[in-house]
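User: I'm curious whether this sequence folds into something compact or stays loose and floppy. Could you predict its structure so I can see for myself?
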Amino acid sequence: MVKEIVVNCGPRDTRVGVIENGELVELFIENTSGERLVGNVYKGKVANVLPGMQAAFVNVGLNKNTFLYVDDALENVVGVDDVPENISNKSSIKDVLKPGQAVIVQVSKEPFGTKGARVTRHITLPGRFVVLMPTVDYIGISRRIVDHEERERLKKLAQEFRPKGMGVIVRTMAEDLSPEELKRDIEFLDKLWRRVKQKGKSAKAPAILHRDLNLLYRIIRDSFDSDVLRLIIDSQDEYESILSLLEDIGPHLKDRVFLFQENRPIFEIFGLETQIEKILRNKVWLRCGGYIVIDQTEALTSIDVNTGKYVGSTNLADTVLKTNLEAAGEIAHQLRLRNIGGIIIIDFIDMDSHDHQRKVLAALAEATVLDKTKTTILGLTQLGLVEMTRQKVRQGLAQSLLKPCTCCDGTGKVPSEDVRVIRIENEIKRYLQTSTDPAVLIHVHPTTAGNLIGVNGVNLERLVKETSKRIFICGKLEISPEEYRIVLSGPVDEVEKTALPVAVGEIHTLLVDSVHSNRTQDGVARIEGYVIQIDQAASLVGKRTTFEITKVDKTFARAKLFTRS
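Assistant: Here's the prediction. I'll summarize afterward.
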């Protein structure tokens, strides 16, 4: 497998793409004006304790109070014999925390939607080779280190070097590491924790005690290892910073760092921009012709699998199996790429064969092995849905790159044209019933204008009869299809003068922008959304044309091509 890391340092953000065999598998984006919270350590003050939720809200100085669950509030529980009986896993939050109490906490999950950040008192300080856990007495070895003898060697070294009473998790990068390097990493993290504690003694809550490294340094610390063929970066300053950092933590990797110096954007050269665009779509096509649809909500993510264009070549069961197997691999890839966390429900195409079901679940499990984020597959429900979870630490890419649509409020749907026009028409009627003015000018979206006016103006004439008012409707592209604007209400001559931008006999030169929908030999020009139908001008679409106004109506004008005598 060829693994590469591509880094784009822009004025607004830093983007890091992890590529495996030419395909984008992970994308990290950090806004230069925003702040990443996960990993930061704060001295906070308990704002209130909620026994009914077994949780507390802690003020750490952010816009919203952070959420601390009881299991995350217990200190020194794992592996410690002298934990008081009244402070156990069955403790009530009331026994652990009191309002106004100062606590040292670390952000474990970024704020999401309406929820504030989640915090824990179980501090973890990651280094390049180990993770130090000052509040628990525990030794763990990365599950990616599979050699039994190497695991035992690292476990003995961790036991020897770790500070008394503290926990250590040995990371994958520590495989075949010398004892001296492992010891140096643990000692560095121990000193860091001592500084955090010392600062916490003097700081007044709320206060930040430790800020995690920026994105680029985290990538070097967590992802840049001997499996990476090269790291390419387009910033001279950051290139030099990386080389300086590697001088201390990985000198053997310096020759794998390259400065990108071409004029074209680095993400474009590596084909990442087009791959990022696909991340924003909810439909993902499979190579076989099937597709998956990914829908994210605040509660969970649902993924639907469909055969699409794929019809198979043998029988239905084999067609379904092949589609589901390919979908399993693509789903694992998309979860990792989009950084989707939380509860995930997958609706594979129905399979009658239990053997086929097992194969698909096995393929899904195998495809998640490369994912560093903890993923758990719970199995099939009685409805044939696959339940799984993926640890949610930071915002998914959809939340980072997209915002709710202002037209549909994030639902993905808007009222149909008929529903929209009926609503606007009813609201116009209500307004006119209370208005004493004899005429009104209304601006709407051009599509809505066409529906309100109707073919040959029949809908507008009906509205005029029902309200006994002169009504002028003008289409404006800058107005949303959901909106309408009462621009002017008053005497007929005043409103008509504003509503009708042309008069009979005037000469105008305008762009013919389209062919008339009913008279295909005629062209259409517009002044501020007001339609001018030009006789025999269909062949002039896209050209500026001079014409003479021959007739003026409330909704449109007629014109003829102007020829100088």
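Summary: The longest strand covers residues 41-50. Residues 77-88 have pLDDT under 50 and may be disordered.
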